Amino acid sequence: MLKLNAGFSRKVGEPNYGSRGASVNVELEVESGLISDPDALMTRIRNLFDIAKRSVDAELGSAPADTHNTARTSGHPGNRRPADGEVVRYATTSQVRAIRAICNRQGVEPHPALEELLAVYDSAWHADTTAPIQFGKGEDEGSLHDLARRMLAAFQGSPVWRLDCTILGVEEELRAPVIPGCPDLLGRIDLVLTDSDPLRLVDFKTVRSRWNGTKITEHAPQMLLYAELARPLAEACGNLPMQLEWIVLTKTQSPTIETHVLTPDLRQLSRTKAVVQRVWASIQAGSFYPSPSAMNCSSCSYAQTCNRWER
User: Which residues span the domain enclosing 126?
Assistant: First the structure.
């Protein structure tokens, strides 16, 4: 027999900085012969995840919270609030990519024209005007619309516009004890794919300038920990090797789409875990002290608390 274990957890915010959460783990024994049928095995795994997710949603008494797509009061225009109070959420970009990939595999043409995409952008932009928008230097609504057009056109012309593979998860939350002596690690992976070999963990980034080796090194620790979280999934899929990659979209005059693949470094993974252990030990010991930064202080949400610190 083969044992499958899937878990899901979610935390939702409440007024006055409160929160509540729920976590469910589901375990199932299946026939070991499924190892030789990856498609059937992946279906069983997805079913387990779906059961766990539905149970958590039922316990919290609401639809899954989307912390990346809140109303404009949180800085994103992607939602609107109709008169009856119901919040309508637009699909995230990664969810749209997933839908397109599924349509491709079914022989359906899901690709809208550029003007259709811009119409969705405009609708989302004007859907909620409950809070003023703080534009960056030299930016206004027109300049951002032009940037959206250039970025969408670049995306349409890139290879990632079509994903010819099997999608296992979109914004998939994974939680597990990864680092000894520390709490469970919770990660949200933008896209989990497989084309039989390998298991691909994809993180999407929008940036102001193209990435170089330094940027890859800076973002590597997070991706390495994602790989640790996804290891049970890779094992359940037949011990698939993992490929860690970023799809990077630059917000420049001429936007570009680039894919960067990370070569795992065991030394860097060990160092990352050691850093997390040290930080957790400091938190437990109550070792908090100011760390002023000319670059970060102006936007830090703890600035006032920091200024009140004495010893």
Answer: 66-164
